[in-house]
Amino acid sequence: ETGVTQTPRHLVMGMTNKKSLKCEQHLGHNAMYWYKQSAKKPLELMFVYNFKEQTENNSVPSRFSPECPNSSHLFLHLHTLQPEDSALYLCASSHPGQVLNTEAFFGQGTRLTVV
Amino acid sequence: ELKVEQNPLFLSMQEGKNYTIYCNYSTTSDRLYWYRQDPGKSLESLFVLLSNGAVKQEGRLMASLDTKARLSTLHITAAVHDLSATYFCAVDRAGTDKLIFGTGTRLQVFP
Asked: Which one-letter DSSP state was computed for residue B26?
């Protein structure tokens, strides 16, 4: 059972829709991440939040808008997406400030299809 | 910019055989991770390697780290079908929150 929960698991949306992905972690971690996993590309780091502050925006288009209201919750707001944005979106959390037990734990992912 | 490369990208091997997956990274890093991903599933942490010369083993998998060469290996001993999955290495720097993944190695073990 994962300590990182993502909802929804599957999402189909039109290019004019607005939707949000949700991630919640129960591991006491202070850093949370959004990754994009496409069929023909490696895992791409999109955003990093550490203690609710965004520390990384890896040149992500503005149609993806992250929100981190607290260290346990992370959202990814989606609007006017393109078909090429269809992918598996993975949320992860970690405790990077520790010496040990620093590995990231991943949620089950949201399979997004843009039509 | 931190880059992480794995090879091979695809690996098809017979049960009972041994093989090694390689992970190279471009800049100094303090921590290296190996993950496994089954089709349609999330990533599962396998190993955390924290220092030069670190070696960890779990079942038929053994991971090692050479920070001077910026190289980690994942060695598979006497492969079995259950090991079929995609394996990722990932690298970060101590004190930072940026975790960069390799391209992944898709392993298929056949009878």
From this structure: S
Which residues on B lie below 8 Å from A40 (Cβ)?
none
Tens of pLDDT, residue by residue over B49-59, are 988 889 999 99
A27-43 pLDDT per residue, tens: 999 899 999 999 878 88
Please tell me the distance from the alpha carbon of residue A4 to that of residue A112, in angstroms, as a whole number.
18
> Does residue A27 belong to the interface with chain B, where contact is any CB pair within 8 Å?
no
**Pick from B31, B43, B44: which is nearest to A102 by CB?**
B31
At A83, the pLDDT band (50, 70, 90 cuts) reads very high
- Distance (Å, whole) CA A6 – CA B41: 12
Interface contact A15, partner B, CB < 8 A: no
DSSP β-bridge partners for residue B80: none
pLDDT of residue B94 exceeding 60 = no
For A53-70, what is each residue's pLDDT tens digit?
887 777 899 999 999 999
| Chain B 84-103, residues with CB within 8 Å of chain A CB atoms | 88, 90, 92, 95-103
Q: Which residues contact A52 (CB under 8 A, 6 or more apart)?
A: A68, A69, A70, A71
User: Which residue carries 């190993």 as its tokens?
Assistant: B47
Set of chain A residues whose Cβ sits within 8 Å of the Cβ of B7: none
Structure tokens at B102: 């390799």
- Least CA distance to A96: which residue of chain B? B97
Partners of residue A2 in chain B, C-beta under 8 Å: 42
